[in-house]
Amino acid sequence: MVRPRFARLPPAQQQAILRAALDEFATHGFHDASLNRVIDAAGISKGSMYYYFDDKADLFAHVARVEFERLLADVGPVARPSEPGPDAFWSTVERFYRDALTRLAAHPRVASLARTWLGASENPALQRAQLELEATVMPWLERVLVLGRSSGAVRTDLPSDLLIAVAIGMGRAMDTWLLSRPPDDTAPPPTGALVGMLRRALEPQT
Amino acid sequence: MVRPRFARLPPAQQQAILRAALDEFATHGFHDASLNRVIDAAGISKGSMYYYFDDKADLFAHVARVEFERLLADVGPVARPSEPGPDAFWSTVERFYRDALTRLAAHPRVASLARTWLGASENPALQRAQLELEATVMPWLERVLVLGRSSGAVRTDLPSDLLIAVAIGMGRAMDTWLLSRPPDDTAPPPTGALVGMLRRALEPQT
Amino acid sequence: MVRPRFARLPPAQQQAILRAALDEFATHGFHDASLNRVIDAAGISKGSMYYYFDDKADLFAHVARVEFERLLADVGPVARPSEPGPDAFWSTVERFYRDALTRLAAHPRVASLARTWLGASENPALQRAQLELEATVMPWLERVLVLGRSSGAVRTDLPSDLLIAVAIGMGRAMDTWLLSRPPDDTAPPPTGALVGMLRRALEPQT
Amino acid sequence: MVRPRFARLPPAQQQAILRAALDEFATHGFHDASLNRVIDAAGISKGSMYYYFDDKADLFAHVARVEFERLLADVGPVARPSEPGPDAFWSTVERFYRDALTRLAAHPRVASLARTWLGASENPALQRAQLELEATVMPWLERVLVLGRSSGAVRTDLPSDLLIAVAIGMGRAMDTWLLSRPPDDTAPPPTGALVGMLRRALEPQT
DNA sequence: TATGAATGAGCTTTCATTCAT
DNA sequence: TATGAATGAAAGCTCATTCAT
């Protein structure tokens, strides 16, 4: 767990460290990231790093949590739709998804972090960090799911963790696909179609 | 790329090497796998390994390709459904999916390899290997997609690589969810529901 | 040397520090003991520790001296035997030895400390501390020796520091041997035989 | 365990490594010895060191075993006394002891190593090495003990491991005492008196 | 065709100690 | 009198890869 000492640092220095770590993890993933490069870039000593964080995984977990929370805060909550009914819910989701994509596109390093988070890992230290992250994001997803169900927009015949897993998987797939498009393809992402597929998979059967 | 030299080895020795590598990669993932352990288990010298394979990623790509091809061969092709129409196609897919799951459950090391393959990686060498693997599996998936479309079972309004990405993502999500269930849950996987979601996402809109 | 500042602390806090240090040194030996753990357990700051003690070795020397003095005080002095003659002296020694063993068995941490003290060390800081400790215990041993000589129980043809070294060495050997016995061996230590060997080595020649 | 690779090295390089390690361990003890210094002094790479030895403790065990075996070989075995009876046995022991002391005095680094060996350790890796060393030396000591008993020179009423422990403890004590004498004391060590004490402790009671 | 010795850059982590406040 | 932030040197160890034979 991040030590309180870190929180007591001058914001500028906190930023420097987090930024350096973000760069490193985004560029090299978790395992290949080098703490040596992080401390060089952040301009602190190796001792200091271990004074602030338990270990590499702790640093990763912290930097990822900060970035994700910032992202969620930026995008704003998935608000309760103004009108009742599935259509309004899915519109809200699509709007949120488009926003999130836009922001991730503007912050490719955070997108990269997210991919590291979602990647499988055999490393126990990283797994700990991943669990910690999950604990940050899952409640948020569950809230959205509840909202969807109360709008009659999401099926209730399957367990919610399965639905969430599928939603994450589809999101990841779309991300992969978007990434694989040639860089000069300036067409906007087909968010309508993508959310449409998600909707069809998750909405109640008729 | 695997060197032809490897193919010229006595099959027994090829098996020994591939088996050792499969064990190692399945147990430790790509990065944490140790070539030293592989050559110890395979009973060959370090020099020989580099005589047969370019590098670690090359070994991984080869072992993964061999295992996947064996898996696909075991399960058999997704045959042209005996009857026309979407229902027959999706039944075939579900049957295939159930078979594949069964086989993966029987070969956990191959399942583990698949997860390594599907995991995102920032490691350039591994990415190269992943691309190589993709080249093995994609044509197969595309064949299935064509089949589905000619049955009217799969939408044609979205690019096929997007549909494939979504299918892979959902498959991965289901795998994750299946893995996360308590080990003593002996209920059979809800393949029907899972393929149902896939179908709803991919079938043509009405 | 312990700073007088330490003596001025409230006894409760002195106890907390000494107890934490005793635990740490007994568990990990000198080198592997961590000052960080000690200050955590004692609930004081790093700065305070260095305000009270010169360094790690100083802390070790102090904690060891306190414990040994307490042990000697508990066991009581090797009293002048009530009767004259060697037999009475050696009986006293044996009684003392048995008492000391009993007490060490009841305070394994102190026993562990004693072993660290008696262990050879190339570490200059620890050597300094060991010398300091010696200065605490040697006078006590010399008093016993004088007692023995005046009873005619201890030879006078060899220098007293040699005799003391031999006595310590034999004590250490016995300790080692006692420790090496299987834990389920509940037979009482053969103190008679052990002191008998010591006696034969140290008593005057006939 | 030392790897056979090491034995295959040119003798000159083996010597260089063993010599560097001996210097380092003798000067700094086990824990404070630095592998980095050893490899610098030996002129080999870090990788090579770990190619030859499992780890630090393995290196220590090997260097110590080599030196002790050389010492024992130099001094020669404790030969069966030419005449029967205790006196001849103890004369042999004293002669051996004097020889060994002479040689240790001529090789202070080996003496230092011996002290590290005999020192207590909390370090599991070092303990492993110490056990390994013990396995080298104990049989030798036991042989001497058997010899002594068959000459009627050593008591049979106490277990041999206790007698050996006492003998080692006394030897260590004498070593300590000899070391503590001022360096300008050129008087020969009182081996007669020292062995005399050992004899009195170990010989049968009358 | 096959070997295995040799490498050295790289890793994460620990720790006693200093010093400005 | 007391703090705790900051340090940097040092540690042991792993590994994929190269290359002379």
Task: Sum this structure up briefly.
4 copies of one chain form a homotetramer. The first copy, chain A, is mostly helical and 206 residues long. Chain A has 10 helices and no strands.
Characterise the protein shown here.
Four copies of one chain form a homotetramer. With 206 residues, chain A is mainly α. The first copy, chain A, has one domain: Orthogonal Bundle (Tetracycline Repressor, domain 2), CATH 1.10.357.10. Helix content of chain A is 73%, strand content 0%. The first copy, chain A, is built from ten helices and no strands. In chain A, α2 runs antiparallel to α3, α2 packs across α5 and α6 crosses α10. The termini of chain A are far apart. The relative contact order of chain A is 0.11. Chains in contact: A-B, C-D. Chains A and B meet through α7, α9 and α10 of A and α9 and α10 of B. The structure holds a DNA duplex (21 and 21 nucleotides). Chains A, B, C, D: Keywords: DNA-binding. Chains A, B, C, D: This is TetR/AcrR family transcriptional regulator.
